[in-house]
Amino acid sequence: MHVTELHLYPVKSLGGLPLERASVEPWGLAGDRRWALVDDTGDVVTARRVHELLRLTAEVVDEETIRITDRADDGSILVDTPLGLGPVPIDLSRLPFASPADEDVNGWLSARVGTRVRLVWQEDPTARTISGAHGGMPGDHVSMADTGPLLLASEASMAQLNEWIAADSDTPDLPDLDPDDLSDTTGEIRTEPLLINRFRPNVVIDGDVPFAEDSWPTVRIGDVDFRTTELCDRCVMTTIDPLTLAGGKEPIRTLARHRRWDGRTWFGIRLVPLTPGQIEVGDVVTGMAP
Questions:
Q1: Of 110, 126, 142, which residue constitutes the final position of a domain?
Q2: I need a surface site. Which of 80, 132, 161, 260 has the fewest CB within 10 A?
Q3: Confidence band, pLDDT 50/70/90 cuts, at residue 132
Q4: Cβ–Cβ contacts within 10 Å for residue 72, how many?
């Protein structure tokens, strides 16, 4: 198996950019999800609620700067890390405070997505631990990502999922399918293959056996070792097309039929680095069987 894609998401819930290589730090890929958006009460704002966030992309310019671009017109703004500014309270698990960006940045973002948002930065990457309920161990840290530093997804698993979507297109929805997991409950069932970027992976691999990654307690990518903390449960965000922003039922509709247990649907695995280093497209991937 090999790495086929790498993706970095500097701002939580914004679109990311593909990479050829990336530095792996104890808390994830360097520069990944160190920024997030909150509202005026400090609640985190994601594309689950504001789909327009997916229209914006973020890239790292240098160690102190990112650039946010709106795909609608290529308008962009440079954002400097807010060193020395007093932290503001936010409602993110195990990270009660973050540093605020300049107000002109907030105004630009709010105008672009149509609702008031504020951009904040995690100054100390060791400030947030990984919950034990999500596979964290003492000394594990995470950025502003949901529950783990990196997400790995498999092309073989994606191909199987797309086969299921096509085969199940004429099958009625499960009666207990939660409408809150779907971004559009009224649209027609679409059967064209979905792209793996709906799942927002950091690492995409090839492989022959669908969902083989479910059973890997550890993974080696190139010369870097990782521990699997948990399988990744999937939410309504995967039902939003990241390019058109159109909503729908897939892939949750089909995952609920084939990949649901404990009341949730599952795709991909979360990893925590065991060693720092560099990974790149083409690296050999070895999943360690239990």
A1: 126
A2: 132
A3: very high
A4: 10
